[in-house]
Amino acid sequence: MTDYEDVIRDAALKNRVSIKEDDVIMVVVTVMNRVVDDQIAALTAALDGHRAECQDIPLGWQKDATDRANQILNAALDSGRTAMAKGMAEGAAKVVALVREETGIVLNAVAAQSVGMEHAVGRHKRFMMWMLVANCAVMVTALAVAAFR
Question: What pTM does this model have?
Answer without folding.
Answer: 0.41
